[in-house]
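ok new one. same drill as before - structure tokens go in, u give me an amino acid for every spot. 249 of them this time. try not to just spam alanines like last time pls lmao
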């Protein structure tokens, strides 16, 4: 009863009813506890000495942590039921393709989370913030709605709308794995080296080189080491004239 009253108030009388109605279209329900959903879009980059946010030093990292775990479990359960004959290796790879950072960033963009992030953050919206917001939003849904309704949100509102699950079955964009496999078959040694680690937009950024038999083939740069290695590997594959799958979500 209390939740129903709060939802009625939020939808019709809240000073932020425009956000509430946007969230309703996105989530499929009207949030009762609006504060936790607003917190889901509050990135840690806002937390500095001049921060005047009503959340103080709070940000969406705790919700992101929770949402990451919940999302991984629900996607695993979804794939387990969808592919009754799929082995552990296949299911693990499929889950990784769906919940990896690049995929979540794309899902967040297609959901329009960049617009909400722009409203509640006084910093430049980086692509990685979109994936973080997706996980934090899942965490917020879980806190308010519980496991069953969060499953419905993820399956009906995220996977079916924004992920081509069948298309991912034969798609591989793990460029590092492709490069290592190719070089191992041909007796070649692959090494990765961090050329530089520096700050950009208050975040760590990595520049990584990949060498094959001691010869540098490519360099990649991104906000985390693994992504930089993937980018360098993709460019190395290109320089070697090897075919690659195009990115797809």
């Amino acid at each position: 009863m209390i939740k129903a009253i709060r939802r009625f108030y939020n939808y019709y009388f809240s000073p932020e009813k425009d956000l509430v109605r946007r969230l309703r279209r996105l989530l499929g329900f009207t949030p009762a506890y609006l504060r936790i959903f607003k917190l889901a879009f509050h990135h840690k980059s806002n937390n500095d000495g001049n921060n005047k946010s009503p959340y103080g030093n709070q940000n969406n990292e705790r919700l992101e942590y929770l949402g990451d775990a919940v999302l991984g479990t629900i996607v695993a359960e979804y794939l387990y039921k969808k592919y009754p004959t799929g082995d552990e290796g296949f299911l693990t790879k499929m889950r990784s393709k769906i919940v990896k950072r690049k995929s979540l960033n794309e899902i967040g963009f297609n959901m329009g989370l960049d617009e909400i992030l722009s409203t509640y953050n006084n910093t430049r919206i980086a692509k990685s913030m979109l994936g973080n917001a997706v996980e934090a939003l899942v965490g917020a849904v879980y806190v308010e709605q519980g496991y069953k309704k969060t499953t419905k949100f993820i399956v009906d509102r995220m996977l079916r709308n924004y992920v081509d699950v069948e298309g991912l079955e034969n798609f591989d964009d793990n460029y590092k794995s492709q490069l290592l496999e190719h070089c191992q078959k041909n007796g070649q040694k692959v090494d990765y080296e961090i050329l530089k680690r520096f700050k950009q937009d208050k975040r760590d950024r990595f520049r990584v080189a990949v060498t094959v038999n001691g010869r540098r083939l490519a360099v990649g740069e991104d906000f985390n080491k693994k992504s930089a290695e993937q980018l360098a590997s993709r460019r190395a594959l290109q320089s070697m004239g090897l075919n690659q799958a195009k990115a797809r979500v």
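Confidence is low (pLDDT under 50) at residues 49-53, 245-249. and btw The radius of gyration is 21 Å.
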